[in-house]
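Hi there. Long-time user, first ticket. I'm pasting a complex I've been working with (about 633 residues overall). I'd like to know whether the download I got is complete or cut off, because the file seemed smaller than I expected. Thanks.
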Amino acid sequence: MTTLLIIEQVLNGLQFGVMLFLMAAGLTLIFGVMGLINLAHGSLYMVGAFAAAWVAGATGSFLLALGAALAAAAVAGVLVEMLVIRRLYRAAHLDQVLATFALILIFSEGTRWVFGSFPLFLDIPDALSGPVSLPGGIQYPLYRLTLIGIGLVVALFLWWLTARTRIGIQIRAGENDREMIAALGVDISKLYTLVFALGAALAGLAGALVGAIQSVQVGMGEPVLILAFVVIVIGGIGSIRGAFIGAILVGLTDTLGGIFLPELFKLFMEPGAATQTGSALASMSVYILMSAVLIWRPTGLFGARA
Amino acid sequence: MIAERWLNMGVLLAFLAIPLWALAVDEPFTITLATRAAILALAAVGLNIALGIGGLVSLGHAAFFGLGGYAMGILGFHAQSFTALELGPLTIEGTKSMPVIWAVAVVVSALAAWVIGLLSLRTTGVYFIMITLAFGQMFFYFAISWGAYGGEDGLSIYVRNGFPGLNTLVPIQFFGLVFGILCLALALQARLRLSPFGLALNAARQSPARVEAIGLNPMRLKLVAFVLSGAITGLAGALFADLNRFVSPTMFSWQLSGELIILIIIGGVGRLMGPVIGAALFVALEHWLGGLTDFWHVWLGVVLLGIVLFARGGVVGLLTGKAGPHV
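Hi, the file is complete. Here it is re-exported in full:
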């Protein structure tokens, strides 16, 4: 167990965390502004990844692929919002869960119908492949480092958008009192569509970026979706800051737990049993973290209301 | 419009008639399908106590379903390998007896529901949905990484467990057993809903503050409902494992929790027969659409969307012309 390994794993955890943040930011905005539980957010992530893989396969350009991912996910988001979601804003949580679960089924099987069951591959662009030397002699993949950078830039952008722009003021006002902001002359339904499209585009971007280091396949969205929910629940639903801190916490816990828990158990157990107990506990660690946070603060770290 | 009482009777009779008809024309697979529907219905009846009467939207009921399944799997595994289960100072022999397995499944899932409920009921609304989901996921990942009982591959039990006086390997006899339990659970729920406890629980869903003001503890009402609900779903899990003679971590998956909620919503939330109608329709759709196309989930999704958008109150609501309770 060396310092180098620890730093590398911390970077991996950060990379995972910022990608979760891209998913969680959209989810938390959508919930905060519209009060909607969107289980289909993982499908938008998948749509982004498939669009990117398809465009990259056809043109060979990674930048075009990213653009396609953003556009495809945003368009899918706008369509879904206008056709289905719009009817659910006043519905019970239960109806929202069911309707968006139905959307997952339609998106997943529809994608399988179009692209088949085999995974697609999206290559890391040449300019970003290979390792880079960090101070202290650490070799780290440039692409993953770029992902961390992109995640941080998006986080800054979202902070600027919500805290410093007119749209941001409207979004925050919409979270607090939707009747009042409608009465003040803001077109609330246009604002909702915009927020949904923004959230969808972020999910699509995350799908495309992560798609280059994993395979692009049907069902890739659901594990990330569940983790993104864990993130926003830890952070407090509706809070971008909470989503960021939650995402980093979850990313680090998941990555570091998988490496260090088995080692920790080896200190006082035999190696075989320690590996098993450690990895069992590691795979549960994120959920243990979440229930601990909720038991301590029932509305999450930065959540104001239930 | 049909009175709900007649609808309920009709549904139960049809549920009994279809396997009997299948027996007459020698279609054992239809009996197995009906058994599957009855078991899923039982699991959903359990969830409906928490969700329909108590308003507790649990997206983690697969935890109890899976615990019931693994109770059967672990006991059956030790019985077929003639080894004992060592639990610290305790030594437990495996068993092939259904009543014993059911008792274990009910107790284990009730205990789990008590702990999960105690912790989760501190939260409300979306947070409750998410924390129950988290507990379900904990069990799912634990089952995957726990190699002693098959891990990700699951565990096969070669011979179906026995029930005194019955040959459970004959499809119609096993169906009869499952159907009997389902009827008992339905009778329990019907009785519960009109009991002082059920009325108080119903009130706790609608207005916890007022329930508290008349001196009842809404938290305790909900916890009892959650434990009862988990225990019934756990029993269904044990039966499901016995139907397939196989348990695997997918019994803990969140998709299964989602499906249980779907069954209830298709039928009608808080309705006595909602889960039964939902499960029967779900299994029928799964079988019929699955035979037409490999991509039947697309059409299932479309049907579900239609129900949410246009038929609030589910099938029961549609047929009786009354909206169900609001959750």
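A couple of notes from our side: Chain B has one domain: 4-320. Chain B has a mean pLDDT of 88.
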